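Input structure tokens:
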């Protein structure tokens, strides 16, 4: 199967490292122009420059998805270049046991992982509707489905993204815009580097494929959902957890 996204433009939030960086690289590898967004401009510029030096098309934009002017920032991006593929990837954790969880930990996680999907997707959809083609891919998490102690805030934000995905898919399918979610299991990134060796070993025992995932494992799923070949798939959650939870 040859995935060719030449002529398409993708916006990937949180593209400065980890899963978002891998998604940006893989989408660029299919011929798409990829706009890499994150708060740290230097890091997204590095990712975009590496894509360009390996023959792809990419640009970088400094964007805090929690900022009050996020809609204006997205409008400015779209004015320069309409977006065909939106990957709502940027996300954070702020774990604690529920009774100890500070209100700020709850608010910050919801503000970063959920609210921007509303604001950014609403802005991006207008041009997708006009083009009668679009892909929205939300990066959820397997813990949205399984739950995870110490992650009430994170699991709630990621479960909400699944409800968002399914409802929006039903609402806009007639415009030929698909909306899907990807639910990664435990993937080797800065987010999981904090695990102790002991915790990692115990975790791997629970994974059917007996390893943590790689950012590319997730990026391939996203690339497929972005492709022409996935035109008849909408409102789904793709489980990329190595069988951690089925
Ligand atoms: P990561 O390595 O911590 O990277 C997070 C990315 O998001 C970075 O590029 C970061 O760049 C960006 N970001 C964070 N806050 C932002 C903000 N306010 N505005 C704009 N960009 C922001 O995380 P990851 O492991 O690659 O995770 C990526 C996504 O996959 C997240 O949604 C995460 O919840 C989800 N996920 C991860 C795993 C896993 O095991 N790693 C499992 C399931 C789901 P800046 O700091 O420069 O802004």
């Amino acid at each position: 199967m040859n995935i060719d996204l030449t002529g398409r433009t993708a916006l990937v939030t949180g593209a400065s490292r980890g899963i978002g960086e891998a998604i940006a690289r893989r989408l660029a590898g299919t011929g798409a122009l990829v706009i890499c967004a994150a708060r740290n401009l230097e890091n997204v510029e590095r990712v975009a420059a590496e894509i360009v030096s390996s023959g792809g098309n990419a640009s970088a934009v400094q964007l805090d998805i929690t900022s009050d002017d996020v809609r204006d920032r997205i409008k400015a991006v779209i004015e320069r270049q309409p977006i065909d593929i939106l990957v709502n990837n940027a996300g954070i954790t702020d774990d604690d046991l529920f009774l100890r969880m500070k209100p700020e930990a709850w608010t910050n996680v919801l503000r970063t992982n959920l609210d921007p999907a509303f604001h950014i997707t609403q802005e991006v959809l207008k041009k997708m509707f006009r083009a009668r083609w679009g892909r929205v891919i939300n990066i959820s998490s397997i813990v949205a489905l399984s739950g995870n102690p110490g992650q009430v805030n994170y699991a709630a934000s990621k479960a909400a993204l699944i409800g968002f995905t399914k409802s929006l898919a039903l609402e806009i399918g007639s415009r030929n815009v698909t909306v899907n979610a990807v639910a990664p299991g435990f993937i080797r990134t800065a987010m999981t580097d904090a695990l102790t060796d002991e915790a990692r070993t115990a975790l791997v025992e629970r994974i059917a494929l007996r390893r943590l995932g790689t950012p590319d494992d997730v990026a391939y799923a996203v690339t497929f959902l972005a492709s022409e070949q996935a035109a008849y798939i909408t409102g789904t959650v793709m489980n990329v957890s190595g069988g951690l939870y089925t």
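The pocket of NAP is lined by residues 13-14, 16-20, 38-40, 43, 63-66, 89-92, 112, 139, 141, 184, 186-187, 189-192 (CB under 6 Å). The chain has a mean pLDDT of 97.
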